[in-house]
């Protein structure tokens, strides 16, 4: 099987659609593709759109489940993270499928009308949504939320509940998702100037200043300093992430919630050579060296088929072990590939290509921009591609009852949407707290300091780049980079992709690889974008991709793509956007979802977006989230009692000046603890629940942010909620 693009479209999975007739897809699939297209034209906000994908998937799932006897709804009729969506059961309709399809359509339509009202492409998005509603025969004039009247009203009511829930989930949607307290410690770096002379801390994130910024979706902004996207997103209410997975940190009096805390990355010591500082230098040196592998004139040939790539058996368990996992000079890792396709029992056919073509193609394929549905949406398009393959048997975990297309789609979207939402919360919570620098800041900043390899050589500094012959060297007298007045002698130079200054017309020009001043190093990106506007550690791409790969593996009951092979075709000199290429036709190939995920992770290093230390923690956390999300979603498929996180629970008023009322399905005495935001015990008491209600007095506590935790008599946590004492 092979993925292809439509004529004129250049972006990977973001732009392909199955050649199966659109009308033959389920109504859930049709609305999912409508959402993905809207995301691709909206502002490039991975966190926000992971949340949009989740909320729309919840809407579709609840609109289907409410008319299904053997499935349970997620929000409709439930209390989730303190928000209650009232619902009283209605009689089963005569035509269940018709009401499900109608409710799904109205629910998604109303959510999208609200969420994309301020989009730069709102007019086009609304026009296409209206056309889909009209083609389905549904009146857009029905706005009633009286769900007893039928599917249209049910869909409108579900949308209202989800939109109201979203206004109190911690995302700050009401204020345009604006940051509430995060502030960068570094002044911005001007990309029109060489070097990075103004950075104050090479261990912290640095905004970039542009005269013309264009985000990953292709939206122009003019002169701008890029703000950090969603540094406080760890505080957003999750899907399956549990309180015991969370660590609360405090900085400048504000709380950062971190799920699956991986610990800090290595920090650069600018006062001495040695220790973990050398791992920081090694990781960014690797990024610079891999930049030299983007050379279309590279004579190295690779077999990029599953016969030679993929099938990793494990990952580094510590930061020093990263050196043994990644190939510093050759690129990639040492994954052995697979001798046979288990679906055909035939060997995978080798595909020999130039390394410089392969590295550039995967850097761009997985970059998700421009005109992209962002990384979480990318994996929805992969799911849709898998769903279209005739070899897929639509059984949950490969063993459950056979699902029709609609049931499969709503369940798969619900689980994947929950996983992508949780990844955004976990990864961006980590990004916001650890606040690490991107390679463009680190490489230019270290080059500004000098070289750290030899005190006997010119331009020595403990925090500088390491010298690596053939890749990172000092500019000598007589060097073509020495400058007209020899002003650059003693500076560092890199053998790397030469950057956008060497590309006048991306349709015909190639920047190529050569020696450049380290002060002029660029990631493999457009000059109007350069690098994503948020911290690097941990890699969102690695976390999203591995969570999705694990979920798809378990959802389908098979680690392999249907037929044992997934493919994407990249035509010669038509695929790349940043420059001309590839020089030959290339077909990206993966045997398993995990192989595709691993390739995505490597691509971000080739693209100059992440050092290795950002990658592996993302993969490991993604494994946990993908598996947990499917387990959590499956409870609703089978009407199993869900965990405490979505049990009937409400705490109000919040903020409070003295007392709060807690509503929870519990009778009798319950031990309750109140913790400071840093985890210290502030208050321990026992509450008496009568008719599922109890009063907690906070009068003895000072103003601040606290965590209220309820336990059963065995010490198991029943609920946990943040409360603000005024």
Describe what is shown at a glance.
This protein is an alpha+beta fold.
Keywords:
726 residues, alpha+beta, 23 strands, 32% helix, globular
The beta-strand count equals 23
Give the helix proportion (percent range).
25-40%
Spatial strand order of the main sheet: 20-19-22-23
Structure class = alpha+beta
Radius of gyration: 26 Å
Q: Strand percentage, roughly?
A: 15-25%
What is the level-2 CATH architecture name of the domain at 648-725?
A: Sandwich
CATH class of the domain at 648-725: Mainly Beta
Largest sheet: 4 strands, antiparallel
Taking pLDDT < 50 over at least 5 consecutive residues as the criterion, the unreliable ranges are 1-22, 643-647
**Gap from first CA to last CA:** 60 Å
How large is the count of helical segments? Answer: 15
CATH topology of the domain at 648-725: Immunoglobulin-like
What's the pLDDT, averaged over the residues?
91
* Global geometry: globular
